[in-house]
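Morning. Coffee machine broken again, so started the prediction first thing and wrote up yesterday's gels while waiting. Chain of 107 residues, entered below exactly as on the submission form.
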Amino acid sequence: MSAIGPYQPGDLVRIPLEVTINGVPTVVGHPRVQKIILPNGSEMPGFPRYMSTVKPGTYMFEIVLTTIGSYTAILEAEYGNATIEQIAEFVIERPWGFPRIEVASDK
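Came back before lunch.
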């Protein structure tokens, strides 16, 4: 499992996948984001979706998200007769400088 981010609402989230055998980049078939689990535990509709090839053995999926919370992406690809899987986690956090309520002290 790998963690990426953190991101803020509206950021472009980049989910990478690198496949190697003994450190050598390896081309796989149909690299995809099989599903994304939302902060409320449900699955995001519209998946699976294919990843773009950055270079042989390296793939990328980009998405813009606005809901604050923790996400899990299930990544899959085909290698020979096997389906390989990777899990990536990321967080969308409150924007920097977001106002907060504090209790004033009378001291």
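The CA atoms of residues 63 and 75 lie 14 Å apart. Going to sketch it on the whiteboard this afternoon.
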